Amino acid sequence: MTKLESLALVPRDGAWGDWSSWTVCDKGCDVGKRKRHRFCDNPFPLHGGANCSEQQHETEDCNTQSCPKVISCRHLLQVGEETNHNYPDAVYKIYPIGSQPIMAYCDMSRDGGGWTLLVTSHTNSWTAQNVKLRNANSPKLTDDYSILQYANSIKDNIKVAGSTFEYRLEAQSRGRWGGIWKAPRGFTFTADNNKQTDIELVKKFDNWEYSDNGIEQRMPWISDARLTTSHDAQRNWWGTITADDMEYHPAPWINGHLKERQPSYIWYWMREGPLEIPSSCKEVYFRGLLTNPVSNGVFAIKPPGQHEVKTYCDFATEGGPWTLLVTSKTHSGWDKDSIKERNSKKPSLQDDYSILGLADAIKDSDKAQQEFFQYRIEADGNSRWGGIWEAPRNYTFLSTCDKQTKVKIVKKFDTWDENSNLGKRMPRLGLSNDLLLSSASTVDYSSGSLVYNSGASSASYLEQEKPKPNVVRYWMREGARLSCNDLKLHGVRAGIKYDDSFQLVKTSDTQYLPVYCDMTTAKGAFTLIVTSAHNSWTRAQVPHR
């Protein structure tokens, strides 16, 4: 063998190294994709040796579970926190108006996450017709997009808690040339005037100041094709998000040296309050006052420390708000358990129903509100054959004794004997296996009975006037104070601090009235008497409007 032959290079085949880690799944649910790769370097091929066979890259499905049905990106973030599941920044289906979904881009990572993209402005081709809804099925950070017309439905959902919401503006790059603001929940995303100025800048991006050469202290409002913070949408209209002017692309933003006059992109986001089921019909009522007043109907509630149920809320009778506890229609199927909860997902004014077991949790939710609470009993019609009673707050809806007699009839429906069982004692449980809820003292004299089985043959409601009604209903409402200051004083004594908010005040034994309370301006509290926003008043409206 020659010396040259002995130095010939020996070929070495390549072999795969270890796989890389999987990339983050590109979707949080509804089947996403993730990838990994490897290199032919263990060892790498040498001197003409064979390269590795098979694939260098792999892709697999991930997060194959269905997406939860949510009203917004904030709601999705909350579901993720509750289930310990990460939902990345991505496009998701949301359901702000019921069963029909829309597509939304969710920022789940910045500024606390849970931001729903409302508008991306990239060109100057906006019109009055598309400023509220544009390319709604394909949300992008780099192309014109708007779902502004759905923003109020998210903010005003009755399951959303809180008296404020947040919005975010940014331009050119994420987290630049804008900020995060807090606004009263009564403000609207689709205002057609420039009056929504009571906003608070929570976080500022970059160096700018409120002025008519940039962002103004005003929530964005709509004037034809223009979504703007400017006081005037036609002249000196800096601080504008969407526009239709060929001079600007997409819109005049912040004027000045080293400012962002015409960014490539302007983004408008929202984040509403947390999703919390109202604790009672009173809380449903207050949330409606913040947004859109509610009407009588079925609502989901979740009393403190209890599970979610549905009930019927009456907001009209004597100023409301009344929570339905029991409807007694038939005289079968009742027992010691069903008297506390029956058909709790299907409340009815005409069929058997009960959430009586949750009533004390509602009554005791705010100890500063009440020394007394009220209950209402009626038979065969609204405000018929019964009345409204006031009872001490330490009385319980689940009592099994006959000692809860310090009750006061504050209003009577129809004519009946107030000295009967119904008039002199709060309904009690547990007289017998068939007599489940009654104001009677003993089984032997069982008038005043609301719920009983057919085995309690002697049971009656109003023995003389209405012994066997077709339907009996039992309601409750929490107590109320005489004024905002009265409420605050009792709150201080109970160690409870109130924010500015709607409250109920008691104007008579039976009538409640919603008022707005300023709890923070002074040591005492102020009750709002008049708000004047327009010049359309009449003499008759001045005392009460």
UniProtKB/TrEMBL annotation:
Gene3D superfamilies: Gamma Fibrinogen, chain A, domain 1, Thrombospondin type-1 (TSP1) repeat. It holds the Pfam family TSP_1. SMART domains: TSP1. The keyword DNA repair does not apply. GO terms for cellular component: extracellular space. Keywords: Calcium, Disulfide bond, Lectin, Metal-binding. One of its GO terms (molecular function) is metal ion binding. InterPro entries: Fibrinogen-like_C (IPR036056), Fibrinogen_a/b/g_C_1 (IPR014716), TSP1_rpt (IPR000884), TSP1_rpt_sf (IPR036383). PANTHER family: INTELECTIN, INTELECTIN-1A-RELATED. This is Fibrinogen C-terminal domain-containing protein.
